[in-house]
Amino acid sequence: MAHIQICSENNGFTIQDITMTLADLNQRFGINNNLIFSEIAGGLIAAQINNAHASASIALQGAHLMTYQPNDEEPVIWLSKYAKFAAGKSIRGGVPICWPWFGAHATDSKLPGHGYARTVMWEVLESKALPDGATFISLGLIETDATRAQWPHPCTAKVEITVGKNLRVELVTQNTGKEAFTLGEALHTYFHISDVAQMTIRGLEGCDYLDKVGEPARRTQKDGIVIESEVDRIYVDTTADCVIEDRGLKRAIRIAKQGSRSTVVWNPWTEKADKMGDFGQDGHRGMVCVESANAAHNVVSVAPGETHRLAVVYSVEALK
After folding, report:
1. How would you class 203 by CB atoms within 10 Å of its CB: exposed for 0-12, middle for 13-18, buried for 19 or more?
2. Residue 205 belongs to a domain with what CATH number?
3. CA pair distance 264, 54, nearest whole angstrom
4. pLDDT for res 181
5. Is residue 23 within 8 Å of residue 29, measured between CB atoms?
6. Catalytic residue among 123, 160, 185, 291
7. Catalytic residue of the set 188, 192, 284, 308
8. Full-prediction pTM beyond 0.85?
9. Domain total for the chain?
10. Active site residue 291
11. Which residues of 81-109 are buried (b: 16+ CB within 10 A; e: fewer)?
12. Domain enclosing residue 118, as ranges
C-alpha cells in the first residue's frame, strides 16, 4: 500500500511514530471530490485538485506544484510530457522550490544545486475549501538527519498553495534558532506558452541582470525580453510584476510577487534541452521559466524568530 512517513507537531507525533497511508491522507485532508490524494508514476503521492475554478496537481515530494489549469483555459503551468518521476529526483516542469540556497552552494560544490527542498518529502499540514470556491493546501518540509547535515540552521519551511481563478504560492521560512542565517530561494516556475517565438516578457525593462550564458557579465535590459537562443539571467533589485505576452494563445500571464527582489528568466534552448533528456524534441519551445527569487546579492538575512515570506500570484489576462 502506498504510504508516506509524516509527522504532526500539533498532535505530538514525530516522523518515526506514524506512517500515513493514502487512505489516511484522504480521510484527514481530502475534500470531497475537490481534493484527492493518489499515487502517481514512480510511486510518488500527489494531491489532485479540481474545483469550480481550476485543476492542479501537487507532488508531496518537494511540495512540487506540477500543473495548474483554469477551467476553459490552456494550462498556465508547463509540465514536460517526458518528466521523470522518481524518489529523490526533481521533476521537469511545474514549480520546483529552490531552497535554502539558489544555484550552487556557496562553499560546498558537492551539495545539490538549488538546495534539497525540491527532492525531499513534505508533509500535509492543512487543507480547506475557501468560500469563493478555491482550494487551499499547506505543506511543511520534513527535516531529517540528511537535511540537517546540509543546512544546520534551526528553522521551518512551509508552502501555502491556493488554487482558484488565480494561483497563489507562498513559501514561508521561519528562523527558530538563536542566530541569523542567509537564505537564497526561488519558485522556479515553468510557464506553458504557444511557442517561444510568439512570446515577449514585459516588466523588467531598465533592470540590470547577471548573464550566465557564456562569460559571466552584468547587463541592462532595454526592451521586453525576446528569446531566440539560450537565456539564463538573474535580474536583480526588482520587485516588479512580470507579464508574459503570448501572441499565439492571445493571452498574458501576470506574475505578481511579494518578498522577492530577484527575477530569473531561463530557457535552455535546443542543445542543452536535448542533453537533459526530459524535454523531448523542441520541448523547450513551449515553455519559459520566470522565477520569483532572492538570489545573488538579493539573498535574505533572516533574524532569530523572524519569518520571511515569498509570495506569488499567477493570473491570466486578455492580451492588450
Report:
1. buried
2. 2.70.98.10
3. 26
4. 98
5. no
6. 291
7. 188
8. yes
9. 1
10. yes
11. eebebeeebbbbbbbbbbbbbbbebeeee
12. 3-318
